[in-house]
Specification:
The chain has about 170 residues and is mainly beta. The protein has strands at about 5-15, 15-20, 25-35, 35-40, 45-55, 60-65, 65-70, 80-85, 90-95, 100-105, 105-110, 115-120, 125-130, 135-140, 145-150, 155, 165. The protein is globular. The chain starts with 6 loop residues before the first strand and ends in a 5-residue tail after the last strand.
Length: about 170
């Protein structure tokens, strides 16, 4: 496992399933999922400075009982550290459920230039952390799409007056 802060990045490309080893903490500068399905299960913690799901193609990530937090890395002005559906023609789908958590302290784009989707189900928890430095933007640029769906038992907490906004795409 990648249990230390010196692991520069992990990139998962192509089809197939990628599952993190349960019970480990992974601290990375970048976690990039570009193809296929990945899952993060109970007791597993992913702490990337940057999380990208669906960079150039379709990718999905299920956070079911595990946690993702991007708060460990110092943020740079203008850097979007969490992106689902990065480039045109890509799609990034993330589902948070079953006690899973996604915490972010930076700009979070659901559909930057592609299609982004975030679904929060049964016990899933998505939170913006910090003092107003985070924003969740749906469909950031023209031609992009972004959706967020919160189902019964799911929680999303953003806080702040400007924490949620719609970009130039279709939200």
């Amino acid at each position: 496992p990648l249990d230390n802060a010196n692991s520069p990045s992990i990139t998962k490309t192509g089809g197939g399933l990628f599952s993190w080893e349960l019970g480990h903490a992974y601290r990375l500068s970048t976690a990039r999922f570009n193809g296929g399905h990945s899952s993060l299960g109970p007791g597993t913690s992913l702490q990337p400075g940057s999380l990208q799901v669906g960079v150039d193609t379709a990718a999905s990530l299920a956070v079911a009982g595990g946690s993702i937090s991007d708060i460990w890395m110092v943020k740079s002005a203008g850097v979007n550290n969490v992106v689902f559906g990065m480039n045109a023609g890509s799609s990034g789908t993330v589902t948070v459920s079953d006690g899973g958590g996604l915490d972010f302290a930076s700009t979070f784009l659901v559909g930057q230039n592609g299609a982004g989707s975030l679904t929060i189900n049964n016990g899933g928890d998505v939170r913006g952390l910090g003092s107003g430095e985070f924003r969740l933007i749906l469909a950031a640029n023209p031609g992009s799409t972004g959706t967020v769906q919160v189902n019964p038992g799911g929680v999303i907490w953003l806080g702040g007056a400007n924490a949620l906004s719609r970009g130039a795409g279709t939200a």
